[in-house]
Amino acid sequence: INFYLNNKYLSNLSINVLGFTKPSFDLPSNVNFIELKNGAKRDMSTWFLDIYNYLKDIDDEYILFTTDDQPVIRPIDNEALKFALDYIKNNKIALCYGIFCGGGTSNKLLFENEFYRINEVNEKYGHKTNLQLNIWNKNVLLEILKHNKNNIASFECNSYKLLQNSQYRDYKIINFTKKN
Fold first, then answer.
1. 3-class DSSP assignment, residue 137
2. Angle at Cα 71 formed by Cα 41 and Cα 20, nearest 5°?
3. Mean pLDDT score of the chain, rounded to an integer?
4. How confident is the model at residue 85 (pLDDT cuts 50, 70, 90)?
5. What's this model's pTM, rounded to 2 decimal places?
6. Which residues sit opposite 17 in a β-bridge?
7. Which residues of 59-72 are buried (b: 16+ CB within 10 A; e: fewer)?
8. Between these two residues, 37 and 34, which has the higher pLDDT value?
């Protein structure tokens, strides 16, 4: 169902799906399957490192990243997505919530116009670095993946602390909201 929903709502994008075993069914034309570890069985102790090893070699500076249980469930406003990407590219942003799903608790207003509102995610929000579909600065995500203990809970609850002690400490996590 993920392929169907992602293709339905992101059909204008080329989607790369990382995995260990290629699906036995045909993928939509805009979906590419990237086989990790030459099809070897997934090893939970190296899962994040396997993703890191692929992502470190791609040219993209910003990526949409999520796990396989977080499909896009509503239409995506391409103008809002473009605006969010432009904002991210022109500011020190680690990741951006809100385009695809709800965001974390916000506090500090960073930008607002008649169409959009951008807030910094509250420092006390427990899942600042989560695995829902978000826009990531690839290098920030790589920093987390290479230091994480291959534990999803640790990724979501503790990776922000890891960033605070890295070269990305000044990067913000933002919540992007399209006004109605």
1. strand
2. 10
3. 85
4. very high
5. 0.88
6. 33
7. eeebebbbeeebbb
8. 34
